[in-house]
């Protein structure tokens, strides 16, 4: 995976030095932590997140009295692995399910983050476990967004509900949900409009869609390539919309990793899915422990 390449190789470097030592002094551990800290900062991880992370690793290392261990290098790596996993949410966070179908999933995010594409991918993932999702086309502003969703729907054989681009998105969402109820769809996924930047009008519209559809999940789609910015965007959306989760896209690119490693800690929202490509089947449930192991190599 191209993502995290530089962070990975830097961390591996730090740990190979430790691993080579039969005995590890407190200074060795401190030196290693200094290097881990720099590597994380360079990977665009939020400053405060890095600070807390290092403090926790140090605390654990002292608690375990690493210097007395027979394999001190391994112990430190294990601690870092556990803390990285915790940082990204600890365990996998599953999609919510409504007591009474349909489960309503609202997608939000800035334009270009990958919302429409992810809507299609998520539908495909749900179909794999025998669900019947309906996609609702509420992005009436971006030219071709509706068509894009329809093409995705055709590709995976999922119905797409649209009322064109002359009806208000709130109305479309309401009618789409009704349509799903009448047609026995167990999930609806609402593709909403994005903007290049967060603005009040967009937020107002999203809030209204939220009010009308009472979603079980509000997933923010963020482009992992945008690093710290992605985290700031997530925080703003969260304040307005009470997100239930984040989808990180473009993890196949050469993202430095900052978004993946900061977004949970900063917003409290778990990362639920990761997208790693343009293809329809490139969405996976996000597993913090697997991601941590990948980063540490
Ligand atoms: P929206 O404006 O948020 O709806 O964004 P789109 O779904 O139209 O996606 C914007 C661009 O990003 C498209 O060219 C997608 O093919 C691309 N894209 C989306 N997700 C991924 C991903 O995980 N990896 C890569 N490489 N490209 C992606």
TrEMBL record:
Q: Where in the cell is it found?
A: Cytoplasm
Source taxon at top rank: Bacteria
Transmembrane ranges? none
Judged by the first EC level, this protein's enzyme class is: hydrolase
Give the reactions, separated by semicolons, that this protein catalyses: GTP + H2O = GDP + phosphate + H(+)
Q: Where is the Signal recognition particle SRP54 helical bundle domain?
A: 3-88
The protein's UniProt keywords, in alphabetical order, are: Cytoplasm, GTP-binding, Hydrolase, Nucleotide-binding, Ribonucleoprotein, RNA-binding, Signal recognition particle
Q: Which GO terms describe its biological process?
A: SRP-dependent cotranslational protein targeting to membrane
Tell me where it mainly resides. cytoplasm
Q: Which GO terms describe its cellular component?
A: signal recognition particle
Annotated residues that bind GTP are located at 109-116, 191-195, 249-252
Ranges where the AAA+ ATPase domain occurs: 101-297
Q: What EC number is given for this enzyme?
A: 3.6.5.4
A GO MF label: GTP binding
UniProt family annotation: Belongs to the GTP-binding SRP family. SRP54 subfamily.
Q: Name the job this protein performs.
A: Involved in targeting and insertion of nascent membrane proteins into the cytoplasmic membrane. Binds to the hydrophobic signal sequence of the ribosome-nascent chain (RNC) as it emerges from the ribosomes. The SRP-RNC complex is then targeted to the cytoplasmic membrane where it interacts with the SRP receptor FtsY.
Written domain comment of the UniProt record = Composed of three domains: the N-terminal N domain, which is responsible for interactions with the ribosome, the central G domain, which binds GTP, and the C-terminal M domain, which binds the RNA and the signal sequence of the RNC.
Q: What is this protein called?
A: Signal recognition particle protein
Q: Which organism is it from?
A: Paenibacillus endophyticus
Native organism taxonomy: Bacteria, Bacillati, Bacillota, Bacilli, Bacillales
């Amino acid at each position: 995976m191209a993502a995290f390449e530089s962070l990975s190789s830097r961390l591996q470097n730090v740990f190979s030095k430790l691993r080579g030592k039969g005995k590890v002094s407190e200074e060795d551990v401190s030196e290693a932590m200094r290097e881990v800290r720099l590597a994380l900062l360079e990977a665009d991880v939020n400053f405060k997140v890095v600070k807390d992370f290092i403090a926790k690793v140090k605390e654990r290392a002292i608690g375990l009295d690493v210097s007395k261990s027979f394999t001190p290098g391994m112990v430190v790596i294990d601690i870092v692995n556990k803390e990285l996993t915790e940082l990204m949410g600890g365990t996998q966070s599953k999609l919510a399910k409504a007591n009474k179908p349909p489960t309503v999933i609202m997608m939000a995010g800035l334009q270009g983050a990958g919302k429409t594409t992810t809507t299609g991918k998520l539908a495909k993932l749900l179909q794999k476990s025998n669900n019947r999702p309906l996609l609702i086309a509420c992005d009436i502003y971006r030219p071709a967004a509706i068509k894009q969703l329809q093409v995705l729907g055709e590709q995976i054989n999922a119905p797409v509900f649209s009322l064109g681009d002359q009806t208000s998105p709130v109305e479309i969402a309401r009618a789409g949900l009704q349509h799903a109820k009448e047609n026995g769809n167990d999930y609806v996924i609402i593709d909403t409009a994005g903007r290049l930047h967060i603005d009040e009008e967009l937020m107002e519209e999203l809030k209204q869609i939220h009010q009308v559809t009472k979603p079980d999940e509000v997933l923010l789609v963020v482009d992992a390539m945008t690093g710290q910015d992605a985290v700031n965007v997530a925080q703003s959306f969260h304040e307005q919309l009470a997100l239930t989760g984040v989808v990180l896209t473009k993890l196949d690119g050469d993202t430095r990793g900052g978004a993946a490693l900061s977004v949970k800690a900063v917003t409290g929202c778990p990362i639920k899915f990761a997208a790693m490509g343009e293809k329809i089947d490139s969405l996976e449930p996000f597993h913090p422990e697997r991601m941590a192991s990948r980063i540490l190599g």
